[in-house]
């Protein structure tokens, strides 16, 4: 199993039942890898030491997987399966777009960019749903993912260099271009990572967040002991508090405080 | 320089010194004579060790080093404009060739490079005309004769003072610094740019490489390491996260975005996986002392390149091939992103690099032999020879072998250094510095 997984060779769907089982297992593991990678990207800014190289490598891995999935036609399978989900995936997409916009109004940059421009986002220990903007995917998945992640980098970078950074065009443009492609996927797969803003009633959503994460990748190489996934945490230890769903109230008040602070800063800075 | 010609598998390495540091060691570097060994740590401190004078005369005890100087090189900073904390961790230290009595080194954190002067003071002036020995001024009416202060010996004091601060030139995190053979300039490299500095001038640097794409969306590759050629002051190389090395000639143009040579090995299709790119990312590049070769370290191997051949390395050494089937777990726990360094011995016949479980590996280029050794207190009884270690990759585990599953991935040796002339090596585990020498 592990050997098969470590090779990224394409599987041909054929009539043999065995082949199908093998292919299905490969797809599952590939999906796990994709999930794991996206989670890493989102949590990039929570590392003790942010690392552009690491982020770029993970993003490239995600791109590779998505390219293979798109090429396989598996992407179509996934998206068709999600077509009947209750949430209009396009609604979900709109949500993320709205969030992108609102973060722009708040002095741009830091919160959004789990991937890049971490010059701008290092200190932000709070993960928000805005981070989700970076994981819109679709038929034109690779370009889109690039687009949104890069947009994040770009804005962070602009903020760093020019301090003026109101590059609002790109995000929306990418959003509308996504069209038929992006709508589908975001729904279930990446929507599960979405964290609702503010309200204490978001506990169930938070649990749901992690209930959908496929934990099987923890078991992929069970022979290795002592290798539990342990993203290096900043002082806030946000992930733990989310998972336990006890700390969410204090977190949301924390977040509210931060939002307020940013609002005040915005007034002072006069942006 | 004539170094010992023992083959590495014939090395009988003894543990000579073991230092426990307060903080995680982040860089280790011998100076050009090997008399001094500098370490930088996560807390921004630099500790310099000096080879004992007695041991320099007694070949049996060459490896005796003692603490010579300790100073705080970098402090944590907060960039208020960008709301960023800047870590004080020392990423690299590079010594300047010695020109006078004082020693100079460059140390850098993520953003700022500093030139430090380390000088000794073993005399002080005594016998002032107008002052008492304790510094109080004498009553002028009691001064009836003229005397001139003279220097008297005192206990040795080693002072480190910052002579230059090279700041504000890097948007991204500095990963490398390298002093040019002209001893006037040096380069500093971050993830996307390389700058050239004059050691005397702190308010200006020239950008010589810029790989930042116009659209950050298109960013797929970063700079991981850079180094000047040891002899040709116009030549430097930089490595990337895609496993390529570019050699640049500064005479060709001011901005060296066009490489003179591109070193890249074609991918082996039978080993292709989603992790191929990550493990091809080069974590360190080092020229040989001769300047004819360069060595690169990627996640699983060390490669030696002939500068005259770009198509593939001339030698490849597997550091821990048994990890290839574990890449997914190593990706999950981020170990796959660990940046191992590598180094040459004095006559370029042996190369060394670190691994996990406090193992480090040496490869003898001439005899094509390699050895795995361990830097740990349990396995390093003072004055007894280090025993080679072996990792069992499958099947029946022999006595004294360790199985892959028992390896401790938290115990990693990222930084090693080799004395420029002797067979003395410095190996840094998380917060222990081991100095080994070979038994004569």
Descriptive overview:
The complex is a heterodimer of chains A (271) and B (440). By secondary structure, chain A is mostly helical. Chain A has helices at 2-6, 17-42, 52-72, 74-82, 89-105, 118-121, 141-161, 169-190, 203-211, 238-244, 248-269. In chain A, α3 packs antiparallel against α7, α4 packs across α8 (169-190) and α7 (141-161) packs across α8 (169-190). The longest helix of chain A has 26 residues, at 17-42. With 440 residues, chain B is mainly beta. Chain B is globular. Residues 1-6 of chain B have low confidence and may be disordered. Classes of the chains: A mainly alpha (271), B mainly beta (440).
Assign a percent range to the helix content of chain B. Answer: under 10%
Tell me the number of helical segments of chain A per DSSP (H or I, 4 or more residues long).
11
Count the beta strands of chain B: 32
**Major β-sheet annotation of chain B:** 4 strands, antiparallel
Task: Enumerate the spans of chain A where pLDDT stays under 50 for 5 or more consecutive residues.
Answer: 1-5, 84-203, 205-251
The secondary structure category of chain A is mainly alpha
InterPro entries (chain B): PP2A_PR55, PP2A_PR55_CS, WD40/YVTN_repeat-like_dom_sf, WD40_repeat_dom_sf, WD40_rpt
Signal peptide (chain B): 1-27
Protein name (chain B): Serine/threonine-protein phosphatase 2A 55 kDa regulatory subunit B
Family (chain B): Belongs to the phosphatase 2A regulatory subunit B family.
